[in-house]
Amino acid sequence: MKSTHYWREVVAEFWGTLFLVLLGNGSVASAKLSQGADEGWFAVGYGIGVTVGVLIALNTSGGHINPAVTVALAVTGKFPWKKVPGFVLAQFLGGFVSGPLLYMTCHGIIEKVEEGSDRTERTRGIFATYPADGVGIWEGFADQVIGTFILCSTILALADSKKGPFVKGMLPFLVGLTVTGIILSFGFVAGAGINPARDFGPRVFTAIVGYEDVFSAGDYFFWIPLVGPFVGAIAAALLFPSCFGFEPSTADSD
Q1: 250, part of any domain
Q2: Domain count across the chain
Q3: Are 197 and 95 in contact (CB under 8 A)?
Q4: In the prediction, which pLDDT does 121 show?
Q5: What this chain does, per the record (predicted)?
Q6: CA distance 18 to 14
Q7: H or E element: which one contains 36?
């Protein structure tokens, strides 16, 4: 593993994830803080965020921008395990840094909505996912597992060595479109996080700036968007090759 190239990959994952979460959560902020905005724009904003994030990082690191995707690719042999820790750390850090950047841009509007200095459930959903009323632990967990399974299955299909250059060139758009579809279909349950870095990093930031119950809300829901996507990703990595004839390439040694 060449040190200089590896660190460029890590930095690319940081920036790609940062742009993904900043654009995605920015669309959530626009909907929540603007009167009459359609919350369906969450899905569009996140789809665009994913497309931009993958485009930024694709040629340098492969554009994983999601710890669950990195693990899925490693399980299939398309990505070396020795690179996983650095990629995952960069992705979580990128997600975290998106928090203060977004908060800085909409701080005044948040103050107005909150009607004071307290930070409550009225705006905390801008930064992290929370379950809808009536959603239990196992429903939330299934939401994360199924959504990430769909995402990683799509990515593994696009990464198949038999796919032509046209499909590979369309990869950022196709992955973004997939994320849009997942959020439109499952977002009403618990936000369809499907990316541990997208949820946990900004959630930690909200705890730092004083938001209430960010870890205890929803019967300690926070662990579900952190763990569930990895379960869905590993399931996709184990089942997809045998079901669809996917031929994983050997991970490079750089």
Answers
A1: no
A2: 1
A3: yes
A4: 77
A5: Aquaglyceroporin that may modulate the water content and osmolytes during anhydrobiosis.
A6: 6
A7: none
**What would the pLDDT profile of 183-231 be if each residue is shown by its tens digit?**
999 888 888 889 999 999 999 999 999 888 899 988 899 999 999 999 9
Q: Which amino acid is at 243?
A: C
Here the tokens at position 249 are 């390439």
Helix (H, G, I), strand (E, B) or coil at 117: coil
The CATH number for 234's domain is 1.20.1080.10
Residue 5 C-alpha from the chain's centroid: 24
pTM over 0.85, yes/no: yes
The length of the chain in residues reads 254
CA distance 179 to 185: 10
For the segment 31-63, what is each residue's pLDDT rounded down to a tens digit?
888 766 666 788 899 999 999 999 999 999 999
Residue 254 lies in a domain: no
Q: Are 127 and 101 in contact (CB under 8 A)?
A: no
DSSP line for 91-103: HHHHHHHHHHHHH
Is 251 within the bounds of a domain? Answer: no
* Cα separation, 148 vs 140, whole angstroms: 12
Amino acid (1-letter code) at residue 204: V
Q: Which domain holds residue 102?
A: 3-244
Angle between helices 67-76 and 224-244 (to 10 degrees): 30
The angle that helices 84-114 and 196-208 make with each other, rounded to 10 degrees, is 50
pLDDT of residue 4: 79
Residue 249 lies in a domain: no
